[in-house]
Amino acid sequence: MLLKALRLRDFRNIESATLEPHERFNVFTGHNGQGKTNLLEAIYLLGAVKSFRPQTNATLVRFDQKQAVLEAGVDRGGSERIVKIEIHERGKKIFLNNNPVRNLTDFFGTLNVVMFGPEDISLLKGSPGERRRFIDRAIFNAHPAYATEVAGYEDILAQRNALLKAPSLDRTLLSVYDEQLIQAGADLVARRLDFLDHFQPVLERTFGEIFDTSFVAELTYQVRWLDTQPDLESWRADRFEIERALATRLSQTAGEERDRGHTVVGPHRDDLRATLNSLDVREFASQGQHRAFVLAMKIGEITYLEERYHFAPILLLDDVSSELDRERNRFLFDFLRGRDEGQVFITTTHRDYILLDEDLKVFDVDGGEVTERGAVENPVDESAQMISGPMVTGSAPVEDLTPGVPFGDPVSFLGTGALDEDTSEEE
Amino acid sequence: MKTADPITNLINALAKLPGVGERTASRLAFYVLNQPEELAEELAEALVQVKEKIGLCRICCNLTEGDECTICRSDKRDLTKVCVVDSTQDLRAIEQTGEFRGRYHVLHGLISPLEGIGPDDIRVAELLRRLSGDVVDMEPEQIEEVIIATNPSVDGEATALYLNRLLKPAGIKVTRIASGVPVGADLEYIDRMTLSRALLERREL
After folding, report:
1. Which residue of chain A has the CA closest to B189?
2. CA–CA separation, B148 vs B54, rounded Å?
3. A419: confidence class by pLDDT, cuts 50, 70, 90
């Protein structure tokens, strides 16, 4: 998977930028606040539609402008596609080869991105929602249709919560939502268990390489709606076991749920537990082990996709070198250079952190202007090859955005603003 | 709002329609303003008439001009089957397939606690009355099968399951339209829920 050309207009602080990335490494350098992360955000949006940082559509559009346009030429296994997103205050419009995309499921999977930024360093310290987002994003990258499953589950959850808050409770109707929650919830749990099953060996191996092979790094699924951890092996073997556990627990908590006015049973509450030699990373690991673990999760995510699904996602590294110690940073770049393929975009304030000296392009980012270092004169025509013709914009008035097309708010785990039912009840 | 000038009033009123934003509303308003008066009268009359003359069929709750809709009035329909739909638009879609010869029941909405729509807010009671043969001035229908044809969405599914819970104990055969792989689709791009349901509901060739 390759990003062959990228064109931005009126996106955040970038008035206009056109670049033809290197097929391996691309480094954005510049001082803070110049627009480096905005470039990564643009690439992320082209893959996931929603940003990785909190934002409204309006903040994505450059000051005083009506709309931002992101456009990319993507090569996936030899077939080339043009992805375009128009961002207006009131929503986003997506185009694939200049045809409007009606169903996001048709679009997802065109451009797979894995993001690693400073906020990920605290992945294991933060709320369960952040770890759920990690696992859900990883599954989504392999199975775009997973987005629909999560969205379906979240819809059921929202309806059920609304019903639990109603002044008088219709028990027959509640039992209907119970049944739906059990079905959709068991699907999510089964998906996540399957992912962890395949992910675990990759994680263990990667951590060993980064840190020390005398440690066994493990991520285990934490079912937070049961008093004791279930036998996950039997759940993995038989989906019906998950359904049965959900059904039993729902009947036990009926009173509590009514009192609290929301659903306390289901995978929207679950978590991942990180351990080294069976000891909880949160409590027992050193700072170095902690960061090595997170790095192993991210590298593992990429390796998992490459080994199990045979494709290399585009990796976005936002200023992570400054968060890693020298040794971990060296490992990261050894890993990156050691891959046969895979396109990487890196932002940094210090070029010295970036341990790369071949197969790369360096772009200077200054006040929203992007210039390729050492580029030949007149590079614009060349880089625009992939995207032919003038940028077509404003094909329809903004106000006629079809209602019900969910581009304004795709599935929560794709970006910030997840439906985190339980962030308030964090211990 | 009431004190606004007539043009603003009209723009605001038009902007309440689905799919019409403020810009479209103002384009429409100025268009009407610049046309002969007949157009405005024709529109106004048509709008009032549609609300005055169109009511619900006393049997199936379909939109109709008289007491009963043309489908319920017809003597060529199979009275043993009732197809339950969300809206008149859905009824028309099924009617156009020509596959169904029974009568309908239009719910005018789907259950959605989020939007404050419960079973009492849609035409569920009317369906139950029909099934128990309790409609005023009408021979009880001999309904043997209720086919639930709501959308395979969360709300459509919840409504279907809810009706099933009410009707099954009464000994009525309740069926649900099949859902699965759309004709002409590519399996690779179908979400797992749809595919697994298509597999569960497979049929022998």
Report:
1. A106
2. 25
3. very low
**DSSP states of A217-234 as a string?**
EEEEEE-TTSSS---HHH
Strand A91-96, strand A99-100: pairing: antiparallel
Q: What is the CATH number of the domain that holds B19?
A: 1.10.8.420
Question: Residue B102 domain-assigned?
Answer: yes
Dihedral angle, C-alpha A126, A198, A265, B150, nearest 10 °: 120
A127 within domain boundaries: no
In a domain, A219, yes or no: no
Please name the residues between 276 and 315 in chain A that touch chain B, using a CB distance below 8 Å. none
| Residue in B with minimal Cα distance to A140 | B191
Residue A410, pLDDT above cutoff 70: no
Query: Any idea which residue has 């029974």 for tokens?
Result: B102
**In terms of DSSP bridges, do strands B145-148 and B78-85 run parallel, antiparallel, or are they unpaired?**
parallel
Contact A180 B154 (CB under 8 A): yes
- In the predicted model, is pLDDT for residue A51 greater than 70? yes
On whether residue A404 sits in a domain, the answer given is yes
In a domain? residue B91: yes
What is the pTM (predicted TM-score) of this model?
Answer: 0.81
Question: Which of A107, A110, A161, A163 would you mutate first to test chain B, the one with the most B CBs within 10 A?
Answer: A163
Pairing of strands A25-29, A344-348: parallel
CATH of residue A341's domain is 3.40.50.300
Is B19 at the interface with chain A, CB within 8 A?
yes
Nearest CA in chain A to B18: A403
B75/B169 same-domain check: yes
Same domain, B172 and B92: yes
Token couple for B110: 């789907």
Q: What domain count does chain A have?
A: 1
| Partner residue opposite B21 with nearest CB, options A166, A175, A400 | A400
Question: What confidence category does residue A277 fall into, taking pLDDT thresholds of 50, 70 and 90?
Answer: very high
Number of domains in chain B: 2
Residues of A in contact with B158 (CB under 8 A): 159, 173, 176-177, 180
Full residue range of the structural domain in which residue A51 is found: 1-112+311-412
Pick from A115, A108, A113: nearest CA to A144 = A108
Whether residue B112 sits in one domain with residue B50: no
Beta carbons of B19 and A398 less than 8 Å apart: no
Q: Which residues of A touch B152 (CB under 8 A)?
A: none
Predicted pLDDT at A224: 96
Complex ipTM > 0.90: no
Q: Provide the β-strand partners of residue A369.
A: A366
Q: Which residues touch A376 (CB under 8 Å, ≥6 apart)?
A: none
User: Does some domain include residue A288?
Assistant: no
Q: Do B83 and B135 fall within a single domain?
A: yes
Residue B160 above 60 pLDDT? yes
Range of the domain at B42: 6-55
CATH number, domain at B154? 3.40.1360.10
